[in-house]
Design a protein that fits this description.
With about 375 residues, this protein is α/β, with parallel strands linked by helices. Helices cover about 35% and strands about 15% of the residues.
Length: about 375
């Protein structure tokens, strides 16, 4: 705690020396308006750190000062920096409970500005100090032009110290962790989902589309698999429905055949939608179907289990999902250790003329970090 407090104080001192600590959060509206360049220019001019909501992830890919995703998916460094901001500007972003960690991510003393084309969106999820009706890209360009006319340029949060920190620990792949117990039971060992996803991130081509279903697992592929741009993440979380990920991934693979598409599913969602594998095989899609298999609806297990509720309806008997995939005509592998990913490497080498199902038997003793955070917010 002392170290974290010292770091936060140091970061605020750096910002105070520069005069301000502004933070941008770009959402779906900024993505749809093509606001990347306009927001990047404005952020550089006023010393802001750009972040996104989950659905706009990748909008600032490659920017050394970008914080990636704000909210429950934010890295520890991003959380500290966002909380240290004295001005938060939301660009086409609703600032809902997920993006703000139930409001705890925005300092109470910070001024909050929201820009949106829909007047009803302004202040809908939290009070704002200033609401502006306008397109994100056009408003950002107008603000840059006005600041330029005034000769304004500020360092703000964009110090060498912040840049060095983000280069060192700005990605989830860079955050140290203790492996979950291997749970080496009667059915064999299980792999930590972070270890699994980090290993895959290093194996997959950079040009990729990651389509994520809903569940306890979803933060691992959504945050530990990098995406090349704002089109790289397909986040099917409307109403937190389970089972939409595979069909969505098939659509993404058809729409962008130039990219490898990853369908990241929990075993519950995979079993709901398993018939869609026939479509992927028939179309000859080089689709990687990555199943985080904890033999349960994991979110329900971790949400209701501690309260003593029966879990028989949300836990499943073991299933050989690799064998199911082969039955549909897919290549397939069961992954329990990092060494088992060699089969994925062989498939990636080509010709990738059919989908591959990866049945990853993951550890299941603890909820994912984002789910723990969500529980604390209720």
């Amino acid at each position: 705690r002392h170290r974290d407090g010292h770091r936060r104080g140091e970061q605020q001192h750096q910002a105070e020396e520069a005069g301000a600590a502004p933070q941008f959060v770009a959402g779906r509206g900024a993505r749809l308006s093509g606001a990347r360049d306009a927001l990047a220019e404005l952020a550089a001019r006023c010393g802001a750190l750009p972040a996104t909501s989950a659905v706009a992830r990748g909008l600032f890919a490659g920017d050394p000062f970008a914080l990636d995703v704000s909210g429950g998916f934010a890295t520890p460094s991003a959380v500290e920096l966002i909380r240290g901001a004295d001005l938060v500007v939301a660009w086409g972003c609703s600032l809902n409970m997920w993006t703000t960690r139930h409001g705890a991510l925005v300092d109470r003393a910070a001024a909050v500005v929201q820009v949106d084309v829909d007047a009803h969106a302004l202040g809908a999820h939290r009070p704002v100090d200033l609401g502006l009706i306008g397109d994100a890209a056009e408003t950002a360009r107008a603000a840059s032009a006005e600041l330029g006319a005034r000769g304004h340029r500020a360092t703000g949060y964009r110090t060498p110290e912040v840049a060095e920190r983000l280069a060192r620990e700005g990605r989830w792949q860079d955050v140290p962790y203790d492996e979950h117990p291997g749970e080496d039971g009667a059915d064999g060992p299980r792999i930590d989902p972070r270890t699994l996803t980090i290993a895959l991130d290093g194996m997959l081509p950079r040009e990729r589309t990651v389509a994520v279903d809903s569940g306890n697992f979803m933060g691992y592929p959504a945050m530990f698999l990098d995406v090349p741009d704002e089109d790289g993440l397909v986040f099917t979380q409307a109403f937190q429905s389970v089972g939409l990920g595979l069909a969505t991934a098939i659509g993404a693979a058809v729409a962008r055949p130039d990219r490898l598409t990853v369908a990241a599913l929990g075993d519950g969602g995979a079993l709901m939608s398993v018939a869609e594998l026939e479509t992927a095989v028939r179309l000859g899609l080089g689709l990687l179907v990555l199943v985080y298999d904890d033999e349960a609806y994991g979110a329900e297990v971790h949400h209701f289990g501690p309260g003593g509720h029966p879990l028989d309806t949300v836990t499943f008997p073991p299933a050989d999902l690799a064998a199911v995939g082969r039955g549909f005509g897919c290549a397939a592998a069961t992954v329990r250790t990092p060494g088992d990913l060699a089969a994925v490497g062989a498939w990636l080498a080509g010709p990738r003329d059919r989908p591959m199902v990866v049945d990853a038997k993951i550890t299941r003793s603890r909820p994912s970090w984002w789910l723990e955070e969500a529980f604390r917010g209720h």
